[in-house]
Structure prediction request, 157 residues.
Amino acid sequence: MPHESIAGLVKDLTTQLSAIATEFGTRADQLTGGGRDVPADLPAPPQPEARELAKQLLAQRMARFDHFPAELFHEPAWDMLLALFVAHEERRTMNVKTLVASAHAPVTTSQRWIDHLHKLKLVDRVIDPVDRRRMEISLSDSGYTAVTAYLRRLGAA
Prediction:
């Protein structure tokens, strides 16, 4: 009898998981336009190439330092936005220290840029609940939309 009740539980669980999978599939189709209309207020899903393009831009920017003095190329805000985009696409979080390192600028300069990007609502800041000394930085929805649109435009060129 115990085997029959376990078998029944497994069968019920399988039925429930199947229903959940079907629901997720339906929602995924709606988001990707799989034969249905995508709601107008949702941004188009990013193209896989957008992340690779952002990585290439970062690599190209770094390569310049091998040939020219660093003071010729000083755009810490753009470097941070690209790094945050790649981190978002790779489902990674970035703290202030990591983000500052990606900017290749002095810490105080980078922190001022983070503050400015936050004021412009391009990035979000969240204090780490485990270690309140750490702050995580991520692209805001509007920041993500702007970087994605820019990368798409570059990719279309």
About this structure: The domain at 48-156 is CATH 1.10.10.10 (Arc Repressor Mutant, subunit A).
